[in-house]
Write a structure and sequence with these properties.
Distance between the termini: 17 Å
Helix content: 40-55%
Structural class: alpha+beta
Number of strands: 6
Shape: globular
């Protein structure tokens, strides 16, 4: 998602010159296309999606196809399963508009309020993100800037809650905001809510402070209540929103409080990415010593929460990014011991 911004092109393009066709289909297009297919699989089921893709490929082998041919194959497979879903209508904005939404999650006494914002809509977001995207998309010669007002997405919200902790319920956000009665999802004031379970949706989630703290507190008592993908996406979203200036950087440190009981390599990989950015930003400041010195952190307390990433199981491996001065070989050896599954991601 880091590549996706107004200065990159959407998945579907109206190409009028053959000379630019080889440049517009870059890394972002293929990765976003894959992510959107993954979101569809969580919507309709993997078997339904696989059957539709097989039919689409068989039907159009050795010939040309257009986007509507894919939607037709998907719709046929969806209809055969008795699922009520207009896949073309749902995916229209996702494929025709660059960027993606982020979902704000707030809570009143009676309702969860879920609101969508176009992530690349504000100028304060665009500059740092475009710089990072431009570096990674340097092989793209053609740049298309989305100058049209952002359109609202039809957003499938994959919601998990204490009433359905091991799965998800799909709620549809088709307007600017959606209000869901608290009683539908939570039994008490301290109950948590996950809006993008299994990282199934192509969007980021911005939890209000109180809602984020409930998630972190629950993870500290039972880290397995959410799968590794959900936990990793939680870290990734907070880190990226902080990098874009939507939330303060200290929120990254707050969300790491549960990492003393975290053993999944995927989650730790996201932590490494998030803390490496903070380490870089602090590298020329006096606060850097507090960030990299555990004793200083323990005395000061200001950044103490971030040190859980080094005290947790396998923390030595994460130090192989050279934060803290551990020898690389020792760090790698410890990482192999603690995270034998790391090469599976």
């Amino acid at each position: 998602m880091i590549f996706d911004s107004p200065s990159t092109n959407s998945v579907i393009l109206n190409i009028t010159q053959s000379t630019v066709s080889s440049n517009v289909y870059n890394r972002m297009v293929y990765e976003k296309g894959s992510a959107l297919l993954r979101m569809i699989s969580y919507l309709v089921g993997e078997d339904v999606l696989e059957g539709a893709l097989r039919d689409y490929l068989d039907r159009h082998a050795w010939s040309a196809a257009v986007t509507d041919d894919l939607w037709t194959a998907l719709q046929k497979s969806i209809d055969e399963q008795g699922i009520s879903l207009d896949i073309k209508a749902v995916m229209k904005v996702w494929t025709e508009q660059a960027g993606y939404p982020y979902i704000t999650v707030e809570r009143t006494d009676d309702f969860f309020i879920l609101t969508q914002e176009y992530f690349m809509d504000k100028a304060t977001f665009v500059q740092p993100l475009e710089q990072r995207a431009a570096e990674m998309l340097s092989d793209s010669a053609a740049v298309y800037v989305n100058t049209e007002p952002a359109r609202l997405y039809t957003v499938p919200l994959f919601i998990a809650s204490p009433k359905n902790p091991n799965n998800y319920t799909i709620y549809w956000l088709t307007d600017k905001s959606l209000q869901v009665p608290v009683t539908e999802l939570a039994g008490g004031a301290d109950d948590w809510l996950i809006v993008n379970a299994h990282a199934a949706g192509y969007y980021r989630v911005h939890y209000a402070d109180a809602e984020l703290q409930k998630i972190v507190d629950h993870l500290k008592t039972d880290v397995t209540v959410f799968d590794a993908k959900t936990r990793a996406q939680l870290i990734c979203d907070v880190s990226f929103l902080a990098g874009a200036g939507v939330v303060e950087q200290v929120r990254i440190l707050k969300v790491t409080e549960f990492l003393t009981v975290e053993t999944a390599y995927l989650t730790w990989h996201m932590v490494q990415e998030a803390l490496a950015y903070i380490d870089l930003m602090l590298s020329s400041r006096s606060a850097h010593a507090q960030f990299t010195d555990p004793h200083g952190l323990q005395r000061n307390g200001l950044l103490h929460s971030c040190w859980t990433w080094r005290r947790a199981p396998g923390g030595v491996y994460m130090a192989s990014c050279n934060v803290g001065g551990f020898r690389r070989k020792a760090a790698d050896d410890e990482g192999v011991r603690v995270f034998p599954q790391r090469n599976n991601y």
